[in-house]
């Protein structure tokens, strides 16, 4: 049985706590949140210790691993505490708010040999593993371009919430696009150049909202077009289309992969992840905790997001932010 400490008892913290306690191989042992009532509520629900600080939670007796689900601007300090304590570490995305901090974490993980994973939950879904296999197998031929469409028309955060402060959340680029920038790096390799325009959560707006449009070219000349938004009305959606010389694949909220080859009809490839434990919060979330626990116990998964993947996603996000601020193309 692996004992987990949880730092952050908000929305995702509750999801992780629930999944940790529903897996037979893991249990929640200690909880900390900057809001004492939130930590107390979660600790009481799962008979865990309610801790007065992140340091106390990480160093609670018997803790084997730490899950960080605190606000983005706290990730670096919380992760350093866990690594200093010699614990296995799972950190929600984005890895950190600032690239420099992510590079520091990366070096610490490499030097210590610590087990660490980042919360890129989509990699733990069967459909994305199928997409990775299709691309790597060459079935689509040489990949030419990719489109990412990620509008969110139900953004409800108001000023005063850390999520509306670009210096604390990193806006739609650092937060919402973290998943898809990671997927692109996993599927296509290393970006070479980035050009972006973004609102960067401009506080001059009457109500908070964000938008980014970007063009990213990879070292293998794949072109990727990106649109993502936090908006207070309009459409919400998720679509990633990948076009090769022989066909294309499209992924949206549906758990299936839509594969269209030249001269043929669209094939729907089922990719449903069964929830082996009734009532768990989404197959991806339960899978990533299960896979993290299995990694601690010595298993290997080639899709498991590492600290390096967290850094690479943030490198692209950082380039998008710098391009938006300067109006220049950023070369890697």
Distance between the termini: 44 Å
With helices defined by DSSP (H or I, 4 residues minimum), what is the helix count?
11
Q: Which series of helices and strands comes N to C?
A: EHEHEHEHEHEHEHHHEEEEEEEHHE
| Strand segment count | 15
Rg from C-alpha positions?
A: 20 Å
Beta content? 25-35%
**Which structural class matches the secondary elements?**
alpha/beta
**Gross morphology:** globular
Helix content: 25-40%
- What order do the strands of the largest sheet run in, or round the barrel if closed? 14-13-12-11-7-10-9-8-15
Largest sheet, if any?
9 strands, mixed
Question: What do the pLDDT scores average to?
Answer: 95
- Which stretches of 5+ consecutive residues score pLDDT under 50? none
